[in-house]
Design a protein that fits this description.
Dna Ligase, domain 1; 39 strands; 6-stranded mixed beta sheet; 22% strand; Rossmann fold; 9-stranded mixed beta sheet; alpha+beta
């Protein structure tokens, strides 16, 4: 039966009659057997292995299944024991690396692919694995044997395998005889090749008789499409609702592992608060398979905590949600569908981590979704109709204990106007943008700094109906914001750290989480809501919110409008809860001949002093923090009726990253005001510290202001280079206005990745250029500072009781050229000082900060 056969690219199966049936194998062939039992597959594998040994082939066995070994004698065969439980990406990458290492013309045996359902629970992912593995094996002129169990996988999965493989065979055992029915044999043909063949005494003969064929297939029919294995698991779980408590708990634990993940603290909370019915209902609103991701879990879990432990107080004021969840497996499917897996594998290596990111990002933005996913997207959009929606990142690592990923991935509003096709295109583009954001410089730098660069980062998505209502041509909620249950970055020593705080805006919440040009959200200390931060503001109107983010229905975009224009609309409730007339500005406009024009100051005075809203938010944060046993950070919106009643929409909840206050620090005496770099009260974040400083990097305010705009970006890139060069030192960064702004006229436009290695960041007020710091409590920038353990101070130079002596640094040698190679065009703008013994001290109780 076996013979030595090495004829050009022709390869023997080890069974002479079968070789004749399919005109032998070819180098490059992937051979897939559809079987009723692993034993049947094993029979043909051992003939193939015996022949490969005779032909002196290099043989590799990929072992990952729970079934018995497919090979009787593994002597001389390289066996790889793989762990599919690590997840699709880790498993797929490991297999790819092995194939690369083994090289050309290797002969492979893979365990039965259906075994992967034990670990991934998804037919979709098995199809994805085959789509990334088979073409690479073909490239390297290998021959590989695979098997799948009959009547186990969806027809769409079988179709993907059939489309990709070179040889697909149906194998039956009937009355101790084997029947092989070739379904696909690429680039080979004979008049009887694609009919069943009977194996008898080592020979294969075609079954051509109509009566024999009818007898063979009489009990076989074309069935309706089978459900994905994933959906069958949830169907089975639904059946256990009528069974014992023990069986329901077992089903619940399985569903938590499939939808939520395996992070111990989150799964413990999920197990405590989610019922089996809750999890089944989540699946009912899921598109695709896989985890729903950290942001979705956080939102759902927080709502469940408040419903369960908050009593009637929260159920009557919480706005309901009808969100959808795009499973994390869709992300991988998209990568595979668009033939990006090999590029992703290169980018995941440290050598290609940043090198291939831009190319990968661009190709993600230009990809297409499989038809089956497109249809699901259309159905969801039909459900939402023309209501505005938001597509939010919900990655596996996001919003978890230890890693918030605040602002690292995109969220995209879909105003959702136009024809069904236009609305689909807008939504699909939004999904691609969020997927591509996994490869942004900030996200990559964040993962690298947090030791996560080699972790699977699957991107699930949360699709939410935008909270708010139509007001003329615009759609927006009345208020939105961020809430922190623990306010350790206090701005006044009388404040209660445990009372929590809000960062509150009118309209869309984008202004609450980002640092916006010329706008200041209202910071609310929940122990004394009417108290304002201790900052030297001369003009209340100047340092409040002046523009409102809205969805423009007519233009189908997220945009902003002047507060005065929005307040001219009927907003469906009492405007005086949020604004008061700015009589000083109105008077000045009249003097200038501008009539019939109102001006407002957005201070939320009535809302914060004469409503239950602050106490409800304080109680909500307190309950969540207590049940999480950890400080929390939430995002919310609220909408009001004409009577002043309101509904709060809790759209996000995550563990708040904090350092704690730290031990009390003995502050140094300051006998001479000139004997320090700075000394002031308040306006810092980071608790009690005493930090030695190796280098101080200062951007001169006057020189920076005088640069043309293009050179201001050059300064930003130089700061990024310094950030990399001094990553192993304690560095203080000082500059005018706001670090990380997108507007060079407001500060230095660095990305967070360009300052992430700094130990201390200072923002300096420079009145001549209109550059002002912003104490960004609650913003994504704030979260970045906390997670990266960066101390922050705002220096209001020229204000009462503020000492700032920049010459303390600039009179020393400039080490800039010793550290990087600067452009001549920014000469005199950046100074790097190295002063032995320089330290920064801060004390929460006295609210003092000194650097000397």
């Amino acid at each position: 039966m076996e013979k030595s056969c090495v004829l050009y690219d022709r390869v023997s199966t080890g069974i002479n009659g079968f070789d004749k049936t399919i005109d032998m194998l070819r180098l490059g062939d992937n051979v897939v057997w559809q079987v009723d039992s692993v034993d049947n597959y094993r029979h043909f594998v051992n003939h193939y292995i015996k022949q490969a040994r005779l032909d002196k082939r290099k043989i590799v066995y990929m072992r990952f299944g729970c079934h018995i070994s497919l090979i009787d004698d593994t002597y001389g065969i390289r066996v790889y024991d793989l762990n599919a439980d690590e997840g699709f990406e880790s498993f797929g990458t490991k297999v790819h690396d092995i194939i690369t290492e083994e090289g050309l013309e290797t002969f492979y045996v893979f365990d039965c692919l259906s075994e992967l359902l034990r670990y991934w629970h998804s037919d979709l992912m098995i199809g994805n694995f085959f789509k990334i593995t088979c073409p690479y094996l073909y490239e390297l002129n290998t021959v590989a044997y695979f098997a799948i169990m009959r009547n186990t996988h969806t027809y769409s999965t079988i179709a993907r395998i059939r489309e990709t493989t070179q040889v697909l065979l149906d194998l039956y055992q009937i009355k101790n005889e084997y029947y092989v029915h070739p379904l696909k044999v690429w680039e080979r043909y004979s008049p009887t090749m694609f009919i069943p063949h009977r194996s008898k005494n080592g020979e294969f003969s075609a079954v051509t008789s109509s009566s024999d064929l009818a007898a063979l297939f009489v009990n076989t029919s074309i069935q309706e499409e089978r459900k994905d294995y994933w959906d069958r698991i949830f169907d089975d779980a639904r059946d256990t609702l009528f069974l014992s408590i023990k069986e329901q708990e077992e089903a619940k634990n399985l569903l938590i592992s499939l939808l939520i993940g395996r992070g111990r603290r989150i799964t413990t909370l999920s197990n405590k608060y989610f019922t089996l019915s809750d999890l089944i209902n989540i699946h009912a609103r899921q598109i695709g398979t896989g985890f729903i991701g950290g942001k979705s879990v956080g939102m759902l879990l927080a709502r469940k905590v408040l419903e369960t432990d908050g009593g009637d107080r929260f159920t009557k004021i919480l706005e309901q949600h009808d969100s959808f969840y795009l499973g994390s497996d869709i992300f991988y499917t998209y990568i595979v569908q668009n033939r990006l897996w090999k590029l992703r594998t290169k980018q995941k290596k440290m050598s290609g981590y940043f090198k291939y990111a831009s190319e990968m990002r661009q190709k993600i933005l230009n990809g297409k979704f499989p038809e089956i996913i497109r249809e699901k997207f259309q159905q969801m959009l039909e459900y939402f109709g023309q209501s505005p929606i938001i597509v939010r990142s919900s990655s596996l690592l996001e919003d978890n204990f230890g890693n918030a990923f605040a602002g690292k991935y995109e969220s995209v509003f879909c105003v959702n106007q136009g024809t069904p096709q236009q609305r689909y295109e807008e939504f699909a583009k939004a999904v691609r943008i969020v997927y591509a954001s996994t490869l942004s410089d900030d996200a990559l730098a964040y993962r690298l700094k947090r030791g996560l660069f080699d972790r699977d980062e699957q991107m699930a998505l949360l699709v939410q109906r935008v909270s708010g209502d139509y007001h003329g041509d615009y759609f927006f909620p009345h208020i939105a914001g961020v809430g922190n249950s623990s306010n350790i970055y206090v701005w006044d020593k009388s404040m209660d750290v445990e009372a929590g705080m809000l960062r509150l805006v009118f309209g869309m919440g984008t202004r609450a989480v980002d640092r916006i040009m010329g706008d200041y959200p209202r910071l609310v200390s929940l122990d004394n809501p009417e108290q304002t931060p201790l900052v030297y503001y001369d003009d209340e109107a100047k340092f409040s919110q002046s523009r409102v983010d809205v969805l423009c229905l007519k233009d189908n975009v997220l945009t902003d409008r002047a507060l005065e224009d929005i307040m001219e609309l009927d907003i469906g409730t009492n405007k005086e809860m949020f604004v008061k007339k700015d009589y000083k500005t109105i008077k000045r406009m009249k003097e200038l001949g501008i009539k019939n024009r109102n001006a407002y100051i957005l201070g939320f005075k009535e809302l914060l002093s004469n409503s239950e809203f602050p106490s409800d938010m304080k109680a909500m944060l307190s309950v969540l923090s207590e049940k999480y046993d950890y400080p929390v950070d939430i995002e919310f919106t609220a909408n009001f009726t004409q009577d002043g009643d309101y509904k709060i929409n809790l759209v996000q909840c995550r563990p708040l990253q904090t350092k704690g206050l730290g031990n009390a620090v003995e502050m140094p005496e300051l006998l001479d005001p000139s004997d320090c770099l700075f000394n002031f009260t308040g306006n810092f974040m980071g608790g009690n510290v005493r930090l030695p400083i190796d280098y101080a990097v200062i951007v001169d305010s006057k020189s920076y202001i005088e640069l043309p705009q293009s050179e201001k970006y050059t300064v930003a890139r130089h700061i990024g280079a310094i950030n990399s060069a001094l990553k192993d030192s304690q560095v203080m960064l000082i500059g005018p206005g706001r670090w990380g702004t997108t507007t060079p006229s407001l500060g230095v436009p660095v990305s967070f990745a360009e300052l992430c290695n700094m130990s201390i960041i200072c923002e300096v007020a420079y009145n001549l250029g209109g550059l002002m710091p912003e104490l960004s409590f609650g913003s994504h920038f704030f979260q970045d500072l906390v997670e990266s353990d960066i101390f922050y101070a705002a220096i209001f130079d020229g204000y009462e009781n503020v000492i700032y002596n920049p010459e303390y640094l600039t009179n020393t040698e400039n080490h800039l050229e010793h550290i990087i190679s600067p452009n001549e065009s920014i000469d005199g703008v950046i100074h790097i000082a190295k002063i032995d013994g320089l330290e920064i001290y801060s004390d929460i109780v006295s609210q003092r900060v000194i650097c000397k």
